[in-house]
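Quick one:
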Amino acid sequence: MAVKVTDALIDMLNKGVAREFQVAVQYILQHMKMEKILRKVRQENILLDKTTYDAIGGILKKMAIEEMKHAGKIMERIYYLGAEATTRSEKPHIGETLKDFMTYGFKAEEEALELYRQTIVEAEKIGDYETAMMFRAIYQDEEKHLYSFEEFKNVDISEPEGPGDVKVEHTSVYTPEYFALLNKAVAAEISAIVQYTNQHEKASKLALRKKESPLEVIGDTNKAKVVSELLKRFFMQEMKHLELIAERVYLLGGDSVYNPDPLPEVGGTVDDFLKLDKKAEDYAIGLYRKIIGEAERIGDIVTRRIFESIIEDEDKHFWELDDYF
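Output:
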C-alpha cells in the first residue's frame, strides 16, 4: 500500500461518492422534467428554436454525466486504498420549476466544495497526495458548476400566466397505480446504474487486475478487466433507459422517484458481479414485461414501445453476462 489510510479519509471519500450519486440523479431527473416544463407556451417558445429551458436542460445533463465520472473516480480510489465503496446516495432534491433546479443545484455544489476542501486537507495530512490531487481536479469541476447555478439563479424564468389545462379524457388511464409501476422501473434503473458503476470500479482494484497466467501477461488483460469494460457499457445504457422512463413519467403528469430499488448489491469477486447482475437483469425483464402488458391494456402505445426497446437491451445484457460463467 502506497499510504496508510485513515478511517476518517475513507469516510470522507464515501461521503463524496454518496454526494456524487445524489447530484447525478438530481440533475438527470431535472433534465428530463424539463421536457414537460418546456412545453409551457412563452413568447420565446414561439419566436425561437431554442429556449431558456433547452439551454439549461443541456447544462444539467452535462453536469449529471460529469458527476457520475466523479463518483467513478472516487470509488476507484477507495478500492485502490483497500476499502469498500458505498452504494448509498444522499437525497436528491428535484423541485418543480427552473428556479428550484438552480437553487437546489447551487446548495448541493456549495456543500460538495466544503466536503472536498476537508478531504484534500485530510489526504495531505497522511501523505496521500494522489487522492488530494484527484480531489483538486474534481473541486475545479464543482466550482464551475456552482458558478453556473449562480449565473442562472436570478434569470427571469417564472412560469407563464394563462388558462389552465384543457380538460381531456384520454389521460384518465394514467392512474396512481400506473405511475407506481413506471416508477418501479425508474428505481430499478437507478439501482442498476449504481451497482454496475460500483462493480466497474471495484474491478479496477489492484488485486483483481493481477495477472496469473502467461495468457493474461501476453494479452495484458484478465477476466476482471474484461468484465469491468462490459459493465461500463451496461451502465451507460442504463443511464439512457433512466432518461427515457423518467421523461415519460413527467410528460404523463407524474413525478419520478429517486431511490434505488431493489438496493444495489456489489459482491466481492468478478463471479459475484456476474451472478448479482444476472439477478438484476432478470428482475428488470420481468418488471418491464408487466409494464408492457399494462401499457397495452390501457392503450398507452408510446410507453409500450419505449419499454419494448429497453427490454431488448436488458435481454442482451442477461445473455452477455451468461457468456462469462
